[in-house]
């Protein structure tokens, strides 16, 4: 059914070659994240504000979900009749994910297809490095249309080129737009000597000013959606954790939904439904995570991290695998139990210098102007 849908989309796209490509017309394809904080949304907003004559059209996550479930007749008709026209007549196409209908079409001459992806970095293998069968083939064909792949650092050019199956000279380390706001907030807090995000979160969740906030943000695991293990993990940490700390819980929405009936300790704040992740990163004194790409964002704060890899062996063998040796790669101590996490925190065995070195390796630009560089490139 999906293949038939891709073919219909491609057929209409080629019919629309009868129409010329319109200069400065931009199609924003946001099938992974159509929220305000996504890379494509940030660029789209900046293009409007720049007033350089760009016109924008969109394919959003909600639209593609409606097409997949065949709900909302107008959205389905629009997707197969009008969206191929917008794609065929756009000079620029911005992506935040692999858009598989592109596997059945060829990019028109002088059209730029810019892959912004949706993460600021990766520990886990993805794309061509893990996919198999028809999905691998379709992604490879779709990615051949990419003219610009945007990343944060020259250090990951080869890795990302391999994961997308494209040439390295198509990878541009100019910085990810979604890092701009966090970098600007960090700079503003340093200049004013005042962290407004921390004040807001502490006030909202009644955290005493003399306490430190530890943000726990584990990786999404498919097998734990309906039966999350996080309750047991939290209990282990809470039991030994010093009273100088409060815990902030940041779960994937699907896991948070299953977890919502659990009673939380008075020193645990449910932060999973906060829409502004940057405010949580700014408010936290320490991050606990495992294999999540959130570590790249948090490294910009230069604050310490603890890596609670309770299932490292199982994840390594049965998951997607890692690009580097996990223990050597991550910028902080590794714990395998909740008690070990609490012990590391209580004894202050944290190293911000490791985080700073990591940041300087994986972020070439730290000026908060990645979006401007991309628009100038366009």
Question: In summary, what is this structure?
Answer:
The chain has 378 residues and is of the alpha/beta class. Helix content is 43%, strand content 14%.
Q: Any overview of this molecule?
A:
The chain is of the alpha/beta class and 378 residues long. It folds into two domains: 2-175 and 370-377, CDP-glycerol glycerophosphotransferase, N-terminal domain (Rossmann fold, 3-Layer(aba) Sandwich); 179-362, Rossmann fold (3-Layer(aba) Sandwich), CATH 3.40.50.12580. It is built from 17 helices and twelve strands. The chain has helices at 2-15, 39-50, 61-69, 73-88, 133-143, 157-164, 178-192, 196-204, 230-240, 253-259, 277-283, 294-299, 312-318, 326-329, 338-346, 352-362, 370-377; strands spanning 22-30, 55-60, 90-95, 112-115, 148-150, 171-172, 212-216, 245-249, 268-270, 286-289, 305-308, 334-335. The strands form two sheets. Strands 2-1-3-4-5-6 form a six-stranded parallel β-sheet, sandwiched between helices. Strands 9-8-7-10-11-12 form a six-stranded parallel β-sheet. The longest helix has 16 residues, at 73-88. The model has no long low-confidence stretch (mean pLDDT 93).
């Amino acid at each position: 059914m999906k293949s038939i849908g891709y073919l219909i989309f491609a057929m209409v796209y080629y019919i629309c070659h009868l129409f010329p490509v319109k200069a400065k017309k931009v199609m924003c394809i946001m099938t992974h994240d159509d929220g305000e904080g996504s890379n494509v949304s940030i660029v789209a907003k900046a293009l409007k504000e720049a007033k350089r004559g760009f016109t924008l059209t969109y394919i959003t996550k909600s639209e593609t979900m409606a097409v997949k479930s065949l709900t909302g007749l107008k959205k389905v008709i629009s997707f197969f009749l009008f969206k191929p026209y917008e794609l065929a007549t756009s000079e620029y196409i911005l992506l935040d994910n692999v858009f598989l209908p592109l596997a059945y079409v060829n990019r028109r001459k002088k059209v730029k297809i810019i892959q912004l992806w949706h993460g600021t970095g990766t520990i886990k293998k993805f794309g061509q490095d893990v996919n198999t069968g028809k999905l691998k083939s379709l992604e490879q064909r779709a990615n051949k249309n990419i003219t610009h792949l945007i990343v944060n650092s020259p250090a990951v050019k080869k890795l990302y080129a391999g994961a997308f199956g494209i040439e390295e000279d198509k990878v541009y380390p100019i910085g990810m737009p979604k890092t701009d706001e966090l970098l600007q907030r960090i700079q503003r807090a340093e200049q004013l000597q005042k962290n407004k995000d921390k004040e807001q979160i502490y006030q909202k969740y009644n955290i005493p000013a003399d306490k430190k906030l530890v943000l726990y943000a584990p990786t999404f695991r498919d097998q734990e959606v309906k039966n999350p293990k996080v309750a047991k993990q939290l209990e282990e940490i809470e039991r030994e954790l010093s009273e100088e700390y409060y815990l902030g819980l940041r779960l994937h929405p699907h896991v948070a939904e299953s977890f919502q009936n659990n009673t939380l300790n008075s020193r645990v704040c449910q932060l999973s439904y906060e829409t502004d992740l940057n405010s949580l990163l700014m408010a936290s004194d320490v991050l606990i995570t495992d294999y999540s790409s959130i570590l790249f964002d948090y490294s910009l704060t230069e604050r310490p991290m603890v890596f609670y890899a309770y299932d490292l062996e199982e994840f390594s063998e049965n998951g997607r695998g890692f690009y580097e040796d996990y223990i050597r790669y991550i910028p902080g101590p590794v714990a395998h139990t909740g008690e070990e996490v609490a012990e590391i925190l209580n004894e202050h065995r944290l190293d911000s210098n490791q985080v700073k070195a990591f940041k300087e390796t994986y972020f070439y630009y730290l000026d908060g102007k990645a979006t401007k560089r991309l628009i100038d490139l366009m």
